[in-house]
Amino acid sequence: MVTILVLHGPNLNALGRRDRHHYGTLTLDEINRRIGERATVLGVAVEFFQSNHEGALIDHLQERADGIDGVVINAGALTHYGLSLKDALTDAGVPVVEVHLSNIHARESWRRHSVLADTARGQIAGLGWRGYTAALEALAGIIGDDAAEQAT
Ligand code: DQA
């Protein structure tokens, strides 16, 4: 079965309490539950990991790289400067979709640049929790397309 790792970076464990205007009212557990429900419909397996530490995210990616087919990631503020995380995503060698709850392009100028963006197949920003389920659906399709292409 196709397995997708959903990675959540720093401060996303505080969703539901932090800056609800930008990030909504759902907790991370509630978002993960919705992602899990969509995964069931799509027929893919999902794994979740959150850390406030870049190294822990990298360790987890390295540990799981051989067992996963793709990554959905909201790297929090590491999005804007996390070059070690970017390298780990590249090294994982699987397609990546970047997600942001808020529209990072409509906020402070430092949020507008993502160092992960050119590592990812695409980016979804500003759609709230729905961005994760949209990313999961897109990634499942991309993994299927890649497999079909490799088979020809
Ligand atoms: C975020 C946007 C980042 O700039 C911020 O540091 C976050 C969350 C988002 O989901 O909109 O922690 O990635």
Short précis:
This protein is of the alpha/beta class. It has five helices and five strands, in the order E-H-H-E-H-E-H-E-E-H. Residues 11, 74, 76-77, 79, 100-102, 104, 111 line the site of 1,3,4-trihydroxy-5-OXO-cyclohexanecarboxylic acid.
Form type: globular
Ligands bound to this protein structure: 1,3,4-trihydroxy-5-OXO-cyclohexanecarboxylic acid
Q: Proportion of β residues?
A: 15-25%
Question: If you average the pLDDT, what whole number results?
Answer: 98
Helical element count? 5
Estimated radius of gyration: 14 Å
Distance between the termini: 20 Å
Spatial order of the strands forming the largest sheet = 2-1-3-4-5
Helix/strand order, N-terminal first: EHHEHEHEEH
Which structural class do you get from the secondary structure elements? alpha/beta
Which residues form runs of ≥5 with pLDDT under 50?
A: none
Helix content: 40-55%
Largest sheet features: 5 strands, parallel
Number of strands: 5
Word description of this protein:
Helix 4 (83-92) links the parallel strand 3 and strand 4. With 152 residues, this protein is an alpha/beta fold. The protein is globular. Helix 2 runs parallel beside helix 5 and helix 3 packs parallel to helix 4. Helix content is 41%, strand content 17%. The structure holds 1,3,4-trihydroxy-5-OXO-cyclohexanecarboxylic acid. Residues 11, 74, 76-77, 79, 100-102, 104, 111 line the site of 1,3,4-trihydroxy-5-OXO-cyclohexanecarboxylic acid (DQA).
